[in-house]
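pinned: reference chain
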Amino acid sequence: MQGITMNELYELIAHCHDAEFEYNGTTYVLQPEVNDNKAYLVIWDCTPNAAKCIAKHEISIEGDIPQSVINVVLSEKCFNGKSFLEIEKEVEVTVIY
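pinned: its structure tokens
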């Protein structure tokens, strides 16, 4: 991964930060979000005019996000049959919110 280490990514996501990253020419966002009083950790494909949620896992609305839950989302095969963990070396984290 370029931009930060995997341990830094886990720490930031655990504390409810957003990470914007690029892979294969596409921008994605890994973030916690709240919909209908439920919290989720999600990955968004931010393709202009075609943005879509490609991974989603319910999380606690309060407190830190456990590494085990982050692993579930990062293990989703949502990048053309590969998971974030499989493409990690090709990912560039561009912005942390």
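why pinned: The first helix runs from residue 6 to 14. The radius of gyration is 12 Å.
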